[in-house]
Design goal:
388 residues; 3-stranded antiparallel β-sheet; 54% helix; 18 helices; mainly alpha; globular
């Protein structure tokens, strides 16, 4: 029995029955009852009531399950439409994988190009913010500007949504301040590289960045993805779906985790003593950022694949190897791999979160395409009041 107790009215509400039925459950031995301090009213153990409610729901009509044919985590591996993601990363472009998620076909020839007037509008919208905002902070503004330029944004026909997705991803990348001379015809990975680092793009680095976009494009019903699907359930247009996903992604336990791991990686590199850095962090917080992923008990395959592609020897890679050696039994997760990628190529602050946001936009739109086929407004849970 727990310390939390429900009144008769609260128990009846959660169970979806009348008060008389609650007392019938007591008489049948399904619930236990205690007297309140006033000696007249009854109290019911909250955990018992919840268990009975859950059992009753199994035989009643429940909210629609979130069925998806997009992503599954199975036997320690991540699959997009039945294809192992680690096999796609580094061998297929992000554009092709986005098309796979949206249409079921790896379309290597798909063009991700933004109309120049839309790009100019987005650039004008973010101009006052450039200089004191990270790239990821500019993305919601870019998305909002692009939405205002699309009079057909409420058309959720699948072919229109796919076309919108390609143009939206293009403007999200191309409107970001860039240090290079990437062209609209270049792959998205090359164009994004120029927005994240002043280094000249090179084949291995761009391949690793593009692979990161692929590896992060979807991950089942993560918080931001569920938020995006909820928006799509109201028939919000694709731009609003992506804006919703970006809002949820901004939380410190979701998209912002990569930047926290990067700061930790730097702190571990500063004294060149990874063991001390691990000991200090465990002492302070009880955990070490960048390690462990509950969905992959045997290790995050996304991290393993990305680290395999970051073939850049140097102090950051040595620091990471030292951290791994200091954490026996714990394996790096994708946040650590993103941090290594960003540090190895001197990327701007917030680069990891930006990569995740761009990559996951493909997944949010794929889930929106699925959700547009479902019953509208199906994500409408009913609150259970527990106040006085």
């Amino acid at each position: 029995m727990t310390d939390r107790m429900f009144t008769t009215a609260q128990a009846a509400r959660l169970l979806g029955v009348k008060a008389e039925t609650v007392y019938a459950y007591v008489s049948r031995g399904l619930l236990s009852r205690t007297r309140a301090a006033d000696g007249r009213t009854s109290r019911f153990d909250a955990e018992e009531v919840r268990r009975l409610a859950a059992r009753n729901r199994r035989g009643a009509t429940e909210p629609d399950p979130v069925e998806t044919s997009l992503t599954v985590i199975r036997d320690g591996a991540l699959y997009y439409r039945g294809r192992n993601v680690t096999g796609l990363a580094g061998t297929q472009t992000f554009e092709a994988v986005a098309s796979l998620l949206w249409t079921g076909v790896l379309d290597e020839g798909a063009a991700f190009v933004a109309a120049e007037p839309v790009r100019e509008l987005a650039c004008a919208a973010i101009r006052p913010l450039v200089g004191h905002a990270r790239p990821v902070d500019l993305l919601p503004v870019i998305v909002g500007a692009a939405a205002t330029a699309d009079p057909l944004r409420y058309d959720v026909d699948p072919a229109i949504v796919v076309r919108t997705g390609r143009a939206l991803l293009a403007v999200m990348v191309d409107a970001l301040p860039s240090s290079g001379n990437a062209r609209p015809a270049d792959p998205l990975g090359v164009r994004l590289w120029s927005a994240l680092t002043t280094k000249e793009p090179h084949e291995d680095g761009v391949r690793a960045l593009d692979a990161a976009l692929v590896l992060l494009a979807d991950h089942d019903l993560a918080s931001s993805t569920l938020a995006a699907r909820t928006a799509a359930s109201t028939r919000a247009h694709p731009y609003a779906v992506v804006a919703t996903g970006l809002g949820a992604l901004d939380g410190p336990t979701h998209g912002a985790a990569a930047e926290a791991v990067r700061r930790f990686l730097r702190s571990a590199a500063a004294p060149a003593d990874p063991m001390a850095a691990v000991a200090d962090r465990v002492h302070e917080t009880g955990r070490v950022p960048g390690f462990g992923e509950p969905r992959y008990p045997e290790g995050d395959p996304r991290a393993a694949r990305l680290l395999e592609l970051i073939d850049t020897p140097g102090p950051i890679r040595s620091t990471m190897d030292g951290l791994v050696a200091a954490r026996p039994g714990m394996r790096p997760n994708v946040d650590l791999a993103l941090a290594v990628l960003a540090e190895a190529h001197d990327m701007v602050p917030g680069a990891g979160e930006t990569i995740l946001a761009i990559g996951r936009t493909a997944g949010w739109l794929a889930h929106a395409l699925e959700e547009y086929r479902e019953r509208p407004n199906r994500f409408r849970p009913q609150g259970f009041y527990t106040g006085s």
